[in-house]
Amino acid sequence: MISIIRWILTKRLDAELFLVFANKTEADIIFRDEWERDVRAHPNFHCYHVLEQPPT
Hints:
Blueprint: H1 2-11, E1 17-23, H2 32-41, E2 45-51
Parallel strand pairs: 1-2
């Protein structure tokens, strides 16, 4: 999925992207910096994190 998202954003395709990313803890989120950067740079990219053990 990572390579598909990167390809769509690089090609600037006319598509709304929604990434729902589930992890146990906040520390388990891989590529977090990249996802946050892409959300800021591409209004058509949306990233939601679902945590089994969210911080208090």
